[in-house]
Amino acid sequence: MNNSINVFQKKVGSVFDGIFDDNIKVISETDISKEEALRLLLIEKLFLFFNQINNNGPVAFKGTFKQSHWLSEEKLDACFMGYKYAVQYTWKVLLGGDIYNSSSLKEIHKTDSWRDYEYNKSNSSGDKRKNTFNYIYNRTYDLDKQTCFDSYFRRIQRDIIWTLEKKYNINFTRVDELFATKKTNYTKSVFQELFSQERAMTESLTIEEELDMSLYWYPVEIVDENKRSGMHVGVPAFVTFLSGVVGLFYDAKDKEFEQVIVRKFIHPRHEAEGNNYSYGILIDSMASAGHYSSGWMLYYDCCGDYSGFSGGEYQHAEKAIKRYRDKGILDFREHIIEQNEFKRYIAKYIEKTDGDTTEKEIEDRLELISDNRKERTIIADSKGLLLELISY
Question: Integer distance in angstroms from the first to the last C-alpha of the chain?
Fold first, then answer.
Protein backbone atom coordinates (compact mmCIF):
# COMPACT_ATOMS: atom_id res chain seq x y z
CA MET A 1 0.00 0.00 0.00
CA ASN A 2 2.83 2.41 0.78
CA ASN A 3 4.19 1.95 -2.72
CA SER A 4 0.75 2.66 -4.23
CA ILE A 5 0.38 5.80 -2.11
CA ASN A 6 3.79 7.03 -3.21
CA VAL A 7 2.97 6.43 -6.88
CA PHE A 8 -0.36 8.25 -6.53
CA GLN A 9 1.30 11.20 -4.80
CA LYS A 10 3.99 11.43 -7.46
CA LYS A 11 1.67 11.19 -10.47
CA VAL A 12 -1.53 12.79 -9.19
CA GLY A 13 -1.11 14.51 -5.84
CA SER A 14 1.89 16.50 -7.02
CA VAL A 15 -0.25 18.20 -9.68
CA PHE A 16 -2.64 19.55 -7.07
CA ASP A 17 0.24 20.43 -4.76
CA GLY A 18 1.60 22.59 -7.57
CA ILE A 19 -1.71 24.39 -7.99
CA PHE A 20 -1.92 25.00 -4.26
CA ASP A 21 1.63 26.37 -4.15
CA ASP A 22 1.36 28.59 -7.24
CA ASN A 23 -2.27 29.62 -7.60
CA ILE A 24 -3.88 29.65 -4.14
CA LYS A 25 -3.56 32.60 -1.79
CA VAL A 26 -4.93 33.26 1.70
CA ILE A 27 -7.19 36.20 2.46
CA SER A 28 -7.38 36.97 6.16
CA GLU A 29 -7.43 39.90 8.57
CA THR A 30 -5.09 37.95 10.81
CA ASP A 31 -1.66 36.71 9.87
CA ILE A 32 -2.41 33.12 8.85
CA SER A 33 0.08 31.28 6.71
CA LYS A 34 -1.12 29.20 3.76
CA GLU A 35 -0.03 25.99 5.49
CA GLU A 36 -1.88 26.90 8.68
CA ALA A 37 -5.01 27.85 6.72
CA LEU A 38 -4.89 24.46 5.01
CA ARG A 39 -4.59 22.74 8.39
CA LEU A 40 -7.62 24.69 9.65
CA LEU A 41 -9.58 23.64 6.57
CA LEU A 42 -8.76 19.99 7.20
CA ILE A 43 -9.78 20.35 10.85
CA GLU A 44 -13.08 21.90 9.77
CA LYS A 45 -13.86 19.04 7.36
CA LEU A 46 -12.88 16.38 9.90
CA PHE A 47 -14.99 18.07 12.58
CA LEU A 48 -18.15 18.69 10.53
CA PHE A 49 -18.26 15.58 8.37
CA PHE A 50 -16.48 12.80 10.23
CA ASN A 51 -17.37 13.51 13.87
CA GLN A 52 -21.08 14.23 13.36
CA ILE A 53 -23.27 11.14 13.23
CA ASN A 54 -26.76 11.08 11.76
CA ASN A 55 -29.27 8.27 11.34
CA ASN A 56 -27.14 6.75 8.58
CA GLY A 57 -23.71 6.88 10.17
CA PRO A 58 -21.12 9.65 9.63
CA VAL A 59 -22.35 12.81 7.90
CA ALA A 60 -19.57 12.31 5.35
CA PHE A 61 -21.48 9.30 4.00
CA LYS A 62 -24.01 10.76 1.58
CA GLY A 63 -26.37 9.38 -0.97
CA THR A 64 -27.79 10.95 -4.11
CA PHE A 65 -29.49 14.32 -4.46
CA LYS A 66 -32.92 12.78 -3.78
CA GLN A 67 -32.25 9.54 -1.98
CA SER A 68 -29.98 8.26 0.75
CA HIS A 69 -28.48 4.80 0.51
CA TRP A 70 -28.96 3.38 3.98
CA LEU A 71 -26.23 1.45 5.70
CA SER A 72 -27.33 -1.69 7.47
CA GLU A 73 -26.91 -2.01 11.23
CA GLU A 74 -24.53 -4.89 10.58
CA LYS A 75 -22.36 -2.70 8.34
CA LEU A 76 -22.30 0.13 10.87
CA ASP A 77 -21.40 -2.24 13.71
CA ALA A 78 -18.62 -3.85 11.66
CA CYS A 79 -17.08 -0.46 10.79
CA PHE A 80 -17.32 1.18 14.19
CA MET A 81 -14.07 -0.03 15.76
CA GLY A 82 -11.86 0.79 12.79
CA TYR A 83 -13.63 4.08 12.14
CA LYS A 84 -13.14 5.59 15.60
CA TYR A 85 -9.44 4.66 15.67
CA ALA A 86 -8.91 6.12 12.19
CA VAL A 87 -10.59 9.39 13.17
CA GLN A 88 -8.61 9.54 16.41
CA TYR A 89 -5.32 9.06 14.56
CA THR A 90 -6.20 11.77 12.04
CA TRP A 91 -6.96 14.23 14.83
CA LYS A 92 -3.62 13.48 16.49
CA VAL A 93 -1.74 14.16 13.23
CA LEU A 94 -3.62 17.43 12.57
CA LEU A 95 -3.43 18.81 16.11
CA GLY A 96 -0.02 17.64 17.16
CA GLY A 97 0.77 15.73 20.32
CA ASP A 98 0.53 18.55 22.87
CA ILE A 99 -2.93 19.85 21.86
CA TYR A 100 -4.23 16.34 21.25
CA ASN A 101 -3.11 15.05 24.65
CA SER A 102 -4.68 18.01 26.44
CA SER A 103 -8.06 17.42 24.78
CA SER A 104 -10.78 14.83 25.26
CA LEU A 105 -9.90 13.30 21.90
CA LYS A 106 -7.40 10.97 23.52
CA GLU A 107 -10.40 9.10 24.96
CA ILE A 108 -12.51 8.83 21.80
CA HIS A 109 -11.43 5.22 21.19
CA LYS A 110 -13.34 4.27 24.36
CA THR A 111 -16.71 5.16 22.85
CA ASP A 112 -19.17 2.25 22.73
CA SER A 113 -21.78 3.33 20.18
CA TRP A 114 -22.34 5.69 17.27
CA ARG A 115 -25.07 7.87 18.83
CA ASP A 116 -26.68 6.30 21.89
CA TYR A 117 -27.18 9.16 24.37
CA GLU A 118 -28.06 8.93 28.05
CA TYR A 119 -30.65 11.64 28.58
CA ASN A 120 -31.47 13.48 31.78
CA LYS A 121 -34.66 12.42 33.52
CA SER A 122 -35.82 16.01 33.60
CA ASN A 123 -37.06 17.12 30.16
CA SER A 124 -36.69 20.82 30.81
CA SER A 125 -35.09 22.62 27.86
CA GLY A 126 -34.14 25.45 30.18
CA ASP A 127 -31.50 23.46 32.07
CA LYS A 128 -28.45 25.77 32.23
CA ARG A 129 -26.05 23.50 34.09
CA LYS A 130 -22.52 23.35 32.74
CA ASN A 131 -21.99 20.78 29.99
CA THR A 132 -25.76 20.28 29.62
CA PHE A 133 -27.04 20.43 26.05
CA ASN A 134 -30.46 20.40 24.43
CA TYR A 135 -31.07 17.63 21.94
CA ILE A 136 -34.47 17.00 20.30
CA TYR A 137 -37.97 16.98 21.72
CA ASN A 138 -36.70 19.13 24.63
CA ARG A 139 -34.52 16.34 25.95
CA THR A 140 -31.21 17.26 27.57
CA TYR A 141 -28.04 15.37 28.35
CA ASP A 142 -24.93 15.83 30.46
CA LEU A 143 -21.98 15.78 28.09
CA ASP A 144 -19.53 14.37 30.62
CA LYS A 145 -21.70 11.27 31.11
CA GLN A 146 -21.90 10.37 27.42
CA THR A 147 -20.02 7.42 25.94
CA CYS A 148 -21.16 7.62 22.28
CA PHE A 149 -19.00 8.75 19.38
CA ASP A 150 -21.35 11.58 18.34
CA SER A 151 -20.97 13.25 21.74
CA TYR A 152 -17.38 14.08 20.80
CA PHE A 153 -18.70 16.59 18.31
CA ARG A 154 -19.60 18.81 21.27
CA ARG A 155 -16.36 17.98 23.09
CA ILE A 156 -14.25 18.89 20.07
CA GLN A 157 -16.22 22.09 19.66
CA ARG A 158 -15.55 22.94 23.31
CA ASP A 159 -11.91 21.84 23.47
CA ILE A 160 -10.64 22.70 19.98
CA ILE A 161 -12.95 24.66 17.68
CA TRP A 162 -13.94 27.54 19.95
CA THR A 163 -10.29 28.04 20.92
CA LEU A 164 -9.16 28.20 17.29
CA GLU A 165 -12.02 30.54 16.33
CA LYS A 166 -10.98 32.94 19.07
CA LYS A 167 -7.29 32.68 18.21
CA TYR A 168 -7.73 33.36 14.48
CA ASN A 169 -10.93 35.45 14.64
CA ILE A 170 -12.73 33.20 12.15
CA ASN A 171 -16.03 31.33 11.82
CA PHE A 172 -15.06 27.69 11.52
CA THR A 173 -17.96 26.83 9.23
CA ARG A 174 -16.54 29.27 6.66
CA VAL A 175 -12.85 28.42 6.72
CA ASP A 176 -12.87 27.81 2.96
CA GLU A 177 -13.43 31.55 2.48
CA LEU A 178 -9.83 32.08 3.60
CA PHE A 179 -8.71 30.80 0.20
CA ALA A 180 -8.81 32.55 -3.16
CA THR A 181 -7.54 31.44 -6.55
CA LYS A 182 -4.97 33.47 -8.44
CA LYS A 183 -5.88 33.01 -12.10
CA THR A 184 -2.67 34.60 -13.34
CA ASN A 185 -0.56 32.01 -15.17
CA TYR A 186 -3.18 29.35 -14.40
CA THR A 187 -4.29 27.02 -17.17
CA LYS A 188 -6.15 23.75 -17.22
CA SER A 189 -3.32 22.29 -19.23
CA VAL A 190 -1.70 21.36 -15.91
CA PHE A 191 -4.13 18.43 -15.86
CA GLN A 192 -3.25 17.21 -19.36
CA GLU A 193 -0.63 14.78 -18.13
CA LEU A 194 -3.22 13.10 -15.92
CA PHE A 195 -5.26 12.28 -19.04
CA SER A 196 -2.34 11.33 -21.25
CA GLN A 197 -3.03 8.23 -23.34
CA GLU A 198 0.56 7.14 -22.79
CA ARG A 199 -0.11 6.87 -19.07
CA ALA A 200 -3.50 5.25 -19.45
CA MET A 201 -3.92 1.73 -18.18
CA THR A 202 -3.46 -0.93 -20.82
CA GLU A 203 -5.84 -3.49 -19.32
CA SER A 204 -9.28 -3.58 -20.89
CA LEU A 205 -12.12 -2.43 -18.64
CA THR A 206 -15.16 -4.49 -17.78
CA ILE A 207 -18.57 -3.17 -18.83
CA GLU A 208 -19.23 -2.14 -15.22
CA GLU A 209 -15.92 -0.26 -15.03
CA GLU A 210 -16.61 1.54 -18.33
CA LEU A 211 -20.02 2.66 -17.10
CA ASP A 212 -18.63 3.72 -13.71
CA MET A 213 -16.06 5.85 -15.51
CA SER A 214 -18.60 7.41 -17.86
CA LEU A 215 -20.85 8.23 -14.89
CA TYR A 216 -17.86 9.69 -13.01
CA TRP A 217 -18.47 7.24 -10.14
CA TYR A 218 -21.50 9.18 -8.90
CA PRO A 219 -24.43 7.20 -7.44
CA VAL A 220 -27.50 6.54 -9.57
CA GLU A 221 -31.21 6.79 -8.78
CA ILE A 222 -33.60 5.04 -11.14
CA VAL A 223 -36.89 6.80 -11.83
CA ASP A 224 -39.23 3.95 -10.93
CA GLU A 225 -42.51 4.44 -12.76
CA ASN A 226 -44.01 1.56 -10.81
CA LYS A 227 -44.35 4.06 -7.95
CA ARG A 228 -45.49 7.11 -9.95
CA SER A 229 -48.22 8.21 -12.31
CA GLY A 230 -47.66 8.17 -16.05
CA MET A 231 -47.08 11.93 -16.18
CA HIS A 232 -43.93 11.77 -14.07
CA VAL A 233 -41.97 9.08 -15.87
CA GLY A 234 -40.38 8.37 -19.21
CA VAL A 235 -39.59 10.96 -21.86
CA PRO A 236 -42.00 13.69 -20.57
CA ALA A 237 -40.25 13.62 -17.21
CA PHE A 238 -36.77 13.40 -18.78
CA VAL A 239 -37.29 16.39 -21.10
CA THR A 240 -38.86 18.47 -18.32
CA PHE A 241 -36.08 17.57 -15.91
CA LEU A 242 -33.39 18.32 -18.49
CA SER A 243 -34.89 21.75 -19.16
CA GLY A 244 -34.89 22.49 -15.43
CA VAL A 245 -31.27 21.43 -15.01
CA VAL A 246 -30.27 23.63 -17.96
CA GLY A 247 -32.11 26.54 -16.37
CA LEU A 248 -30.21 26.02 -13.12
CA PHE A 249 -26.97 25.90 -15.09
CA TYR A 250 -27.63 29.39 -16.46
CA ASP A 251 -28.97 30.88 -13.22
CA ALA A 252 -26.73 29.37 -10.52
CA LYS A 253 -23.80 31.40 -9.28
CA ASP A 254 -21.99 28.36 -7.90
CA LYS A 255 -21.78 25.15 -9.92
CA GLU A 256 -19.96 21.87 -9.42
CA PHE A 257 -19.77 21.09 -13.15
CA GLU A 258 -18.87 23.24 -16.14
CA GLN A 259 -21.55 21.64 -18.31
CA VAL A 260 -24.85 19.83 -17.99
CA ILE A 261 -23.93 16.14 -18.09
CA VAL A 262 -26.19 13.72 -19.97
CA ARG A 263 -25.75 10.08 -20.95
CA LYS A 264 -27.66 8.03 -23.52
CA PHE A 265 -27.74 4.24 -23.41
CA ILE A 266 -28.69 2.35 -26.57
CA HIS A 267 -30.14 -1.14 -26.12
CA PRO A 268 -30.28 -3.06 -29.44
CA ARG A 269 -33.31 -5.25 -30.07
CA HIS A 270 -32.10 -8.48 -31.62
CA GLU A 271 -35.55 -9.99 -32.15
CA ALA A 272 -36.60 -7.07 -34.39
CA GLU A 273 -35.31 -3.83 -35.88
CA GLY A 274 -34.74 -0.78 -33.74
CA ASN A 275 -33.44 0.01 -30.26
CA ASN A 276 -34.66 0.82 -26.78
CA TYR A 277 -33.15 3.81 -24.98
CA SER A 278 -32.32 4.93 -21.45
CA TYR A 279 -31.19 8.45 -20.50
CA GLY A 280 -29.36 9.81 -17.48
CA ILE A 281 -28.87 13.35 -16.13
CA LEU A 282 -26.24 14.22 -13.50
CA ILE A 283 -27.83 16.53 -10.93
CA ASP A 284 -25.55 19.40 -9.92
CA SER A 285 -26.58 19.74 -6.27
CA MET A 286 -24.22 22.69 -5.79
CA ALA A 287 -26.20 24.62 -8.39
CA SER A 288 -29.58 23.54 -7.02
CA ALA A 289 -29.02 23.32 -3.26
CA GLY A 290 -25.60 24.76 -2.46
CA HIS A 291 -23.88 21.57 -1.31
CA TYR A 292 -21.96 18.63 -2.73
CA SER A 293 -24.13 15.52 -2.99
CA SER A 294 -24.61 15.16 -6.72
CA GLY A 295 -25.93 12.03 -8.39
CA TRP A 296 -27.62 10.66 -11.49
CA MET A 297 -31.31 10.50 -12.31
CA LEU A 298 -31.72 7.58 -14.73
CA TYR A 299 -34.76 7.16 -16.97
CA TYR A 300 -34.49 3.48 -17.71
CA ASP A 301 -35.92 2.08 -20.98
CA CYS A 302 -38.07 5.17 -21.44
CA CYS A 303 -38.56 4.97 -25.23
CA GLY A 304 -37.78 3.16 -28.46
CA ASP A 305 -37.44 4.09 -32.14
CA TYR A 306 -39.57 1.39 -33.76
CA SER A 307 -43.21 2.40 -33.18
CA GLY A 308 -45.34 5.47 -33.68
CA PHE A 309 -45.88 6.53 -30.05
CA SER A 310 -42.54 5.42 -28.60
CA GLY A 311 -40.72 6.63 -31.69
CA GLY A 312 -42.35 10.04 -31.29
CA GLU A 313 -41.16 10.22 -27.68
CA TYR A 314 -37.66 9.27 -28.80
CA GLN A 315 -37.67 12.12 -31.31
CA HIS A 316 -38.76 14.57 -28.61
CA ALA A 317 -35.90 13.44 -26.35
CA GLU A 318 -33.35 13.71 -29.14
CA LYS A 319 -34.66 17.11 -30.20
CA ALA A 320 -34.22 18.46 -26.67
CA ILE A 321 -30.70 17.04 -26.42
CA LYS A 322 -29.73 18.47 -29.82
CA ARG A 323 -31.05 21.90 -28.86
CA TYR A 324 -28.79 22.09 -25.83
CA ARG A 325 -25.84 20.40 -27.54
CA ASP A 326 -25.97 23.07 -30.26
CA LYS A 327 -25.61 25.67 -27.50
CA GLY A 328 -22.45 23.92 -26.29
CA ILE A 329 -23.63 23.32 -22.72
CA LEU A 330 -23.96 19.52 -22.72
CA ASP A 331 -21.33 16.96 -21.80
CA PHE A 332 -23.01 14.22 -23.82
CA ARG A 333 -21.95 10.63 -24.42
CA GLU A 334 -23.76 7.56 -25.62
CA HIS A 335 -23.11 3.89 -24.98
CA ILE A 336 -24.33 0.79 -26.77
CA ILE A 337 -25.05 -1.89 -24.19
CA GLU A 338 -27.25 -4.95 -24.10
CA GLN A 339 -30.38 -4.30 -22.04
CA ASN A 340 -29.87 -7.34 -19.80
CA GLU A 341 -26.29 -6.23 -19.04
CA PHE A 342 -27.51 -2.74 -18.24
CA LYS A 343 -30.17 -4.15 -15.92
CA ARG A 344 -27.53 -6.07 -14.01
CA TYR A 345 -25.42 -2.93 -13.71
CA ILE A 346 -28.14 -0.63 -12.34
CA ALA A 347 -29.74 -3.29 -10.13
CA LYS A 348 -27.28 -2.40 -7.37
CA TYR A 349 -28.81 1.08 -7.18
CA ILE A 350 -32.39 -0.10 -6.75
CA GLU A 351 -33.64 0.50 -3.22
CA LYS A 352 -34.58 -2.83 -1.73
CA THR A 353 -38.09 -2.81 -0.31
CA ASP A 354 -37.45 -6.01 1.61
CA GLY A 355 -34.25 -7.09 3.30
CA ASP A 356 -34.50 -10.45 1.55
CA THR A 357 -35.05 -9.03 -1.96
CA THR A 358 -32.84 -10.89 -4.42
CA GLU A 359 -30.97 -9.43 -7.38
CA LYS A 360 -33.32 -11.41 -9.65
CA GLU A 361 -36.36 -9.79 -8.05
CA ILE A 362 -34.80 -6.37 -8.51
CA GLU A 363 -34.16 -7.12 -12.19
CA ASP A 364 -37.80 -8.18 -12.46
CA ARG A 365 -38.82 -4.75 -11.18
CA LEU A 366 -36.77 -3.18 -13.96
CA GLU A 367 -38.45 -5.52 -16.42
CA LEU A 368 -41.80 -4.24 -15.16
CA ILE A 369 -40.71 -0.70 -16.02
CA SER A 370 -40.06 -1.88 -19.59
CA ASP A 371 -43.40 -3.71 -19.70
CA ASN A 372 -45.28 -0.63 -18.52
CA ARG A 373 -43.64 1.49 -21.20
CA LYS A 374 -44.48 -1.07 -23.87
CA GLU A 375 -48.07 -1.16 -22.62
CA ARG A 376 -48.38 2.62 -22.98
CA THR A 377 -46.95 2.36 -26.49
CA ILE A 378 -49.43 -0.33 -27.52
CA ILE A 379 -52.37 1.66 -26.11
CA ALA A 380 -51.26 4.89 -27.81
CA ASP A 381 -50.65 3.17 -31.16
CA SER A 382 -54.03 1.43 -30.89
CA LYS A 383 -55.76 4.77 -30.26
CA GLY A 384 -54.12 6.15 -33.38
CA LEU A 385 -55.21 3.17 -35.46
CA LEU A 386 -58.76 3.43 -34.10
CA LEU A 387 -58.98 7.09 -35.11
CA GLU A 388 -57.78 6.21 -38.60
CA LEU A 389 -60.44 3.49 -38.96
CA ILE A 390 -63.17 5.84 -37.69
CA SER A 391 -62.11 8.55 -40.15
CA TYR A 392 -62.39 6.10 -43.04
Answer: 76
